[in-house]
Amino acid sequence: MAEFWSGFLLPLIIMVLQILAITVPLLVAVAFMTYAERKIMGAMQMRQGPSIVGPFGLMQPFADGLKLFAKEQILPEGANRVVFYIAPMLTFFLALIAWAVIPFDYGVVLSNINVGVLYLFAISSLGVYGIVMAGWASNSRYAFLGALRSAAQMVSYEVSMGLIIITVLLCVGSLNLTEIVRAQEKVWFCIPLLPMFVMFFISALAETNRAPFDLPEGESELVAGFMVEYSSAPFALFFLGEYANMILMSAMTSILFLGGWLPPLPFAPFTWVPGIVWFALKIAFCLFTYVWVRATVPRYRYDQLMRLGWKVFLPLSLFWVVLTAGVLVTFGWLPK
Amino acid sequence: MILQGIAFYVFAALLVASGVMVISARNPVHSVLFLILAFFQAAGLCLLMGAEFIAMILVIVYVGAVAVLFLFVVMMLDINFRELRKGAMEALPLGALVGLILLAELAAVVGGWIVAPNVAAIAGAPTPSIDQVSNTQALGRLMYTQYVYLFQASGIVLLIAMIGAIVLTLRHRPGVHKQNIGVQIARRREEVVAIRKVTTGEGV
């Protein structure tokens, strides 16, 4: 019995507590992300944003959540019941499990696996299934069109994203996320690989279906795209999943290009701040840029979106892979 | 150890079950979804064997890209499923034959192991143990040194297949207006906009 306790049950309890320690702050961050987005966009458009519920409107996300869960659930006629309900769950689930490999500080990571980057890439490429299943199961033209657009868009941008990740891996020599951050101790990769950083950020926008690439939702033409038939809790799950994915992509950008938990300069006043704070600040910076882009740029036309992905990003990222490899080999900078 | 055993049987049972569902599901979209589930179970089995790189690549390539396009096509097609089922019975002998050949090959491999247990060790390249070198590095060392020509050859085969697919589907349709972004951005205001004063009752 004692062996069962120390060998199986105790690790299980610790693991569950660790998972909760990641998930609960993440969900709170998602809630306040929606608030921050409305506030920032309000400021950019010279209005107030939410300001009624609680001080400065801080309780707004919770009021919204309560409203969403109190609404009636509607299952459209002719919808595929099982797939219709699995789709939002899958979106939410995928947005959460990716956090298992994110290192928050040196050694502060739930699962430090060797192929961390590949795991993140795999999970982010699965995100399309929630949308496609939702669009198909809704049995609605608008939803289906949104799903088709999303499938084509996410597959297209994944290709260039994979090549960008390869460029980073060439400079690191490991697929482990902790190793990737430690390789940036001298210089963050956003400086030598600046074009890759910009392209990765744009691809991340396309991958999370955010403005200016939010064609799968496209409220001006497709009403709300794949989400049009969803209400109440399933809709809330989509919403949470989408914002958790945004935070995840920001975390990925920070780890790959902005030096993860590392301080900007490696001496005294900066090193006093704990790494997790730097990491959070970098994520917040990326998220702010997401909102900034949304408030600034008009939506892309669909053919232009495809052209950008296949005819601009793909050749450019391929060229940078070759260039980076060439430079590393020529100067003998290849990591051991 | 016992946990690994349980995990293996869960993955294996789900893999076989979802494989059966792929061919027995009535709705082809459900079939593709079960196929994806099967890919996941296979990735889980690879992970249990310590082949983490293969497992991740399986998920990225098959689930993340190939199956998305599969689902895309199956959802777009408007098939009459009963018609399809009629044809399936005619193809059954051929399918059974292919299945039998595969089964015989599997039996030959397993039989080989039993007859000569060291044959697997001879066939497999000497890979260092997992604690010395990570999975990805071991694969890379092998592929880019010993098997580099085969690796490049398989790349060329894939490239040819890709070119073939493009050649088969590419057609130039006349009368399609396409945007040339370079030309469009290069336009100046003076070339396209003319401001005129229009006097009333005379027109331009």
The helicity of chain B comes to over 70%
**Spans of at least 5 consecutive residues with low confidence of chain A:** none
Outline of chain A: globular
Report mean pLDDT of chain A, rounded to a whole number. Answer: 86
* Estimated radius of gyration of chain B: 28 Å
Strand content of chain B: under 5%
Helical residue percent band of chain A: 55-70%
- Element-level helix/strand string of chain A: HHHHHHHHHHH
Number of helices of chain B: 10
Could you state the oligomeric state of the chains shown? heterodimer
What is the molecular shape of chain B?
elongated
What can you tell me about this protein's structure?
The complex is a heterodimer of chains A (336) and B (204). Chain A has 336 residues and is mainly α. Chain A folds into 2 domains: 1-70; 76-331, no CATH class. Chain A contains 11 helices and no strands. Chain A has helices spanning 2-44, 60-70, 81-97, 116-137, 141-172, 177-182, 194-207, 232-257, 268-271, 275-296, 302-330. Chain A is globular, with a radius of gyration of 21 Å. The model of chain A has no long low-confidence stretch (mean pLDDT 86). Chain B is 75% helix and 0% strand. The model of chain B has no long low-confidence stretch (mean pLDDT 83).
Descriptive keywords:
heterodimer; A: mainly alpha; 2 domains; globular; B: 204 residues; mainly alpha; 10 helices; 0% strand; elongated; quinone (chain B); transmembrane helix (chain B)
Quick structural gist:
The complex is a heterodimer of chains A (336) and B (204). By secondary structure, chain A is mostly helical.
Please describe the topology of this protein.
The complex is a heterodimer of chains A (336) and B (204).
Chain A (H helix, E strand, L loop, with lengths): L1 H43 L15 H11 L10 H17 L18 H22 L3 H32 L4 H6 L11 H14 L24 H26 L10 H4 L3 H22 L5 H29 L6
Chain B lengths: L1 H23 L3 H21 L3 H25 L4 H10 L1 H24 L3 H5 L11 H12 L1 H22 L11 H6 L2 H4 L12
